[in-house]
Amino acid sequence: MARKRWANVNALYQIYPRSFMDSNDDGVGDLRGVIDRLAYIKSGEKSLGIDAIWFSPFYPSPQADMGYDVSEYCDINPMFGSLDDFRELIEKAHASGIKVMVDFVPNHTSDQHPWFLESQSSRDNDKSDFYTWRDARADGSPPNNWLSIFGGSAWQWNESRQQYYLHTFLKEQPDLNWDNPAVRQEMKRVLKFWLDLGVDGFRADAVRWISKDPHQRDDLLAAHCPDEQSVRSFDDLQHKYSRFWENLFPYLRELTDVVASYDDRIMIFEDYPDGNYGTQEQYLGFYGVNPDVSMPFNFEGLGAKFSAESFSTMVNEFQGMINPDIHTPVYCFSNHDQARIATRYGGTEQARLVALMQLTLPGLPVVYYGDEIGMTNAPIQFDEIQDKSVFSHGNDESVGRDPERTPMQWTGEKNAGFSQVKPWLPVDPISKKVNVDVEQHDPDSFFALYQRLLKLRSQYEILRMGEYEPIGDAGDDIFAYARWIGKEQHVFVALNFSKETRRVTLPHAGFILCSTHPVDYPAIGANGVVTLRPYEGVLVECSEHRLQRDN
Ligand code: GLC
């Protein structure tokens, strides 16, 4: 059966450190705030009950890309606390049975990182080849047509070196040169530093970009784009040469070998579905790196239409493509770059259904802070925007990624109980109703649903590790599947994606373990027929194959 590492972990909870809890009232979240809320995460009486947390970057950084521009890999940004705070956090988290994952940003540093400052100072210094430098073309223009994801050319002119440097993201985020063995050595040293401190894993950021064509050939025009003059945005090119090159998996293997040399540590790769590559090639490539230790996120649900057909196709194709004995699925439906689930899928009832699906599918699901109480994308006015990528996109319509990054809604009081002072991003006014405090006291709340599902996922190995099998003909608008271990244990899941009531036929009768309405479960007939309310989902224990609880 799959997954030897992190075998009992029910799910992973993403904490955006700026927005989780502010302990020192400066308007920005911090590590001490997280320490204070470990009881909410797992150990307390009314806790969410989730077994692992992942921190978006908390390293020293000028915050051009909110910490994804690292200026020192082995320290904590004072705005979040200190290394001693982090040591205390790890110790207390471990004492409560919570694993701790950190973000690892391998593709680029900040332009304020000492490596870059040295590298740009001359063409002949210790770090001169740590980044990708090239001369201008004869007319002074950038060396090739590669584009930055955040808009414009991926090349930035540097006066002191009289050369261009490559940046796939903001110009404040120069790409490291991974073909330089000294860079790879340094990055492995960084991993060891955090592993020695006791972290249990890494989420590796934007990995596809670490290997590029060494000849830096021009990327190709996208099919819809007639000529170079029509290239306006990132999607007007096919990014054949600027990423996903042949050393990608060997380089990732070097990293995961370091992780593998420590007990029970893992690495999750960030990589989005990409029309330029077959998804199968992508997934199997990433799983192939080191299946015992590492796995890619599955982000396909982000683009899925809210329908039984689209979700069942996505899940069934993915489950059919991987080898469930060695590959761990990591289903992820929201994060700090993407709309929250209650916004993306059209409402809180729909989001409850997605939650029940996510927490009953195999693998290691990832929950974004606040999604467990049904937070929605918050309204952000133009003059409140903090996400700089908005401006380099040159798109006045967009407010970027701030709406999904607003402060955690702890209470209905001032600043949602996040801080005594005005927070770095506005608190969503919806926090008066949608908050932890209210929901912890409501047995039918969003939070109560997550709590129930996470508890079941901890108690029953079948939900974490059991086999997956689609149930073909359960009914219109229904996505249904079975999870099983051997011949002995079976559960069924039926999800109604319609806004109407739907009749579902399960393979057997059974007992409801959880419904998207946690206080009021529907009845199942002796023939396995159950009537689901609009957007209702159920997890059913089969009456002939009862479950064994393992903790
Ligand atoms: C990843 C991060 C995103 C960041 C980018 C550059 O996609 O999730 O927030 O802007 O990488 O590091």
UniProtKB/TrEMBL annotation:
* SUPFAM superfamilies per record: (Trans)glycosidases, Glycosyl hydrolase domain
State the Pfam families in the record: Alpha-amylase
Domain of life assignment? Bacteria
Domain Glycosyl hydrolase family 13 catalytic as annotated: residue spans = 14-405
The record's annotation in SMART domains points to: Aamy
State the family it belongs to. Answer: Belongs to the glycosyl hydrolase 13 family.
Put simply, this protein is called Glycosyl hydrolase family 13 catalytic domain-containing protein
